[in-house]
Amino acid sequence: MKRLLIMICLFASVAGCASKDWRTASREPAGIAPDPTVTKEAVVQAYAAPTWGWRGWFAVHTWISVKPANDPAYTVYELIGWRQHRGLPIVRIEKDLPDRFWFGERPRLLTEIRGARAEQLIPAIDQAARSYPWPDTYKAFPGPNSNTFIAWIAKKIPELGLDLPFSAIGSGYEN
Fold first, then answer.
1. Quick check: 175 pLDDT over 80?
2. I need a surface site. Which of 33, 44, 82, 87 has the fewest CB within 10 A?
3. Is-contact 47 99, C-beta < 8 A?
């Protein structure tokens, strides 16, 4: 009986994931980041959200969002492997919503720095992101992947104080 109950629960959870569609999953802002039109100070934030589907039980996707002082928008730094299949660069540095749901999964804030200290870190974050050593390579496991990218930035800038979670698979990748 116990085994049957476990099987039913497992089937129900897998079936629940199968009914989701990444194309219609939420990419709305989570309301975590301060409004850039109201918040004039510089902001640096790092986020993690469960990855799509069943992989989210074990792994997260991480990214960094920055907003210089008086800037009306955030710049998001992340690496997205599936962009490679579309002929796009996998390192993505673009103006975007800083705290979007990651295809239906709510992000959580890993670190936040504001004010003068954030303003000083933003150019270093940009430089570290642009000097990432694997800009054309993506492997879900063991890496390099999206978490390797953010770990690279964190390693180059220890002042971020960014400790990635254990579920940031690939964050320990070294060639």
1. no
2. 87
3. yes
Calpha distance 4→61 (Å, rounded) = 33
Q: Residue length, the chain?
A: 175
- Cα separation, 152 vs 162, in Å, equals 11
pLDDT tens digits, residue range 51-82? 978 887 989 999 999 999 999 999 999 999 88
Sheet hosting strand 60-67, strand order edge to edge: 91-95, 75-79, 60-67, 43-50, 108-114
Please report, for the chain, the start and end positions of each structural domain, with discontinuous segments joined by +: 33-160
Of the candidates 171, 156, 159, 152, the residue with the CA atom closest to the CA atom of residue 61: 171
Pseudo-torsion of CA 116, 117, 120, 126, nearest 10°? -120
Max distance between CA atoms of the chain, in angstroms, equals: 62
- 113-125 exposure pattern, b = at least 16 Cβ within 10 A, e = fewer: bbeeebbebbeeb
Q: Report residue 166 as tokens.
A: 């254990």
Q: Where are the alpha helices (DSSP H) in 39-108?
A: none
